[in-house]
Recover the amino acids of this structure.
């Protein structure tokens, strides 16, 4: 796997939240750059700003100041300045999000969870050939995460680890340039958590998505390309992970 050109570039990003008569600093002058095929882990204590950083990188929260450049083949866009509608379109087309909880739709099968992602923002009528192509792609992704034989099951019929695998496959449905993953193993036991982490790393390496991954599991950090630590909203590089 070859790490390619820059996909995401945060420059001097600041964000605060109101707290009574004062404000809490969530991100403090944060800068980082992420390239295609690169996996960057984000670590740090609870409440330090890790999930907030992912939300800013994926256009879910707009920072108070700074720039968040997202580069596509068409050019570079400062996503911190996008309208809500434009940000939603960018997420739909170019960003995959894996939340801590799977947030699957209870009434949909595993296959349908993926299929619906391909139809978001489109007209009600979808040509038959396109529906067939979408189904084939969804099945290929379920196969990639080891769930081809579970495609007809709904979330209640799946284990926690299986639901998180569907969550990952769903996030990859639109071939995102950027994948953000927020503590994907937090609700799983050690064995299932390790399996999901192995799967994420393997799929990301194969598909070469630029990836930001928040985790408390330090056992896999040596497999990342870069590791950052967030404390009180400030971001630093953690080189100790790769020390001999």
């Amino acid at each position: 796997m070859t790490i390619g050109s820059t996909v995401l570039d945060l420059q001097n990003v600041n964000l605060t939240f109101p707290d009574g008569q004062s404000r809490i600093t969530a991100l403090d002058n944060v800068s980082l750059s992420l390239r295609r095929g690169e996996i960057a882990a984000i670590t740090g204590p609870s409440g330090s700003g890790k999930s907030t950083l992912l939300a800013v990188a994926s256009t879910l929260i707009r920072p108070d100041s700074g720039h968040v450049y997202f580069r596509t083949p068409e050019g570079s866009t400062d996503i911190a300045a996008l309208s809500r509608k434009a940000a939603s379109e960018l997420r739909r087309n170019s960003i995959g999000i894996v939340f801590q909880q799977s947030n699957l739709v209870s009434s949909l099968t595993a296959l349908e969870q993926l299929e619906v992602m391909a139809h978001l923002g489109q007209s009600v009528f979808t040509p038959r050939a396109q529906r067939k192509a979408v189904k084939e792609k969804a099945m290929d992704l379920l196969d990639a995460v080891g769930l081809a034989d579970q495609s007809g099951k709904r979330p209640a019929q799946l284990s926690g680890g299986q639901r998180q695998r569907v969550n990952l496959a769903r996030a990859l449905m639109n071939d995102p340039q950027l994948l953000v993953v927020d503590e994907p193993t937090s609700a799983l036991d050690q064995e299932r958590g390790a399996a999901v982490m192995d799967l994420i790393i393997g799929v990301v390496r194969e598909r070469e998505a630029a990836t930001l991954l928040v985790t408390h599991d330090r056992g896999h950090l040596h497999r990342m390309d870069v590791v950052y630590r967030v404390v009180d909203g400030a971001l630093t590089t953690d080189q100790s992970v790769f020390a001999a």
About this structure: The CA atoms of residues 56 and 62 lie 6 Å apart.
